[in-house]
Design goal:
Diaminopimelate Epimerase, Chain A, domain 1, 2 domains, 18 strands, about 15% helix, single chain, alpha+beta, 18-stranded mixed beta sheet
């Protein structure tokens, strides 16, 4: 099986081109083996680039623990780059099918290769039962979450997958590595949750570390960065357009206001996509 290793701001996955060869059997088991950083290729998971009846291509993703996820912003940018660079759809504006529906992307290219990608991530999901969480009401903004003997103020957002955003003075290892897995599996989140620990530098700039559901800490999380942009606005900490510094690189986010424009209320994410190498498995 041919594969390609790619990353978006350090959020790395193993990609399989299912236009060129049959989709692998048991992709959940393959994800566990191929994503292993000691005995496999290494990565945060496995992404299949598949044909689609409603878009230029379809992304199907699996976390490093084999669980299938709905969406990955960094992964989607890499899918767009692969589809463009490998002439599956050689156009700078394309649509990609995900577990969160069809999303539209715009590519910045140079020398026949895509370098940066902007994704229209659509509207954030804010209703607690749709995220899902067990809180009631219209939104979960600065609600108290008890974790062991500590209490945090959290804001919850879904960008097609669930996120719990926590604004902190310092995103320490104790928080990310110690409490991240406890929050991921907290009873408040029926489908588990991705956890963002965020330092606010200014109203237009933040720093983020993510404990990702099914993968542990990752160098970047695109949907998480979008969730942070939304959470910052909802909680009054940031403006609608921010620069987010993640461990593996920077992402630019903007949550458009509700007005009469075509994409009112949508979140846009812009960042890099990089192809690292290709090979054969096993």
């Amino acid at each position: 099986m041919r594969f390609t290793k790619m990353h978006g701001a350090g959020n790395d996955y193993v990609y399989v081109d299912c236009f060129a060869e049959p989709a692998p059997e048991n992709p959940d088991q393959l994800a566990i083996a191929i994503a292993d950083r000691h005995f496999g290729v290494g990565g945060d998971g496995l992404i299949l680039i598949r044909p689609s009846e409603v878009a230029d291509a379809r992304m199907q993703m699996f976390n490093a623990d084999g669980s299938e996820a709905e969406m990955c912003g960094n992964g989607l940018r890499c899918v767009a780059k692969y589809v463009y660079d490998h002439k599956i759809a050689a156009k700078e504006s394309m649509s990609l099918e995900t577990g969160n529906g069809v999303l539209h992307v715009e590519l910045e290219t140079a020398g026949g290769l895509a370098e940066r990608v902007t994704v229209n991530m659509g509207r954030p999901i804010l209703a607690p039962t749709d995220i899902p969480t067990t809180w009631q009401g219209e939104q979960v903004v600065d609600e108290e979450l008890q974790v062991g003997d500590q209490t945090f103020r959290v804001t919850c957002v879904s960008m097609g997958n669930p996120h719990c955003v926590i604004f902190v003075e310092k995103a320490t290892d104790e928080l990310v590595l110690g409490l991240g897995p406890l929050i991921e599996n907290h009873e408040r989140f029926p489908n588990r949750v991705n956890v963002e620990f965020v330092e606010v530098i200014s109203p237009t700039e933040v720093r983020q570390r993510t404990w990702e559901r099914g993968s542990g800490e990752t160098l970047a999380c695109g949907t998480g960065a979008c969730a942070v942009c939304v959470a910052g606005v909802l909680s009054g900490r940031t403006e609608r357009k921010i620069l987010n510094h993640l461990s593996g690189g920077d992402l630019s986010l903007e949550w458009l206001a509700e007005d009469a424009s075509e994409h009112a209320g949508h979140v846009f994410m812009t960042g890099p996509a990089t192809e690292v190498f290709s090979g054969e498995w096993p």
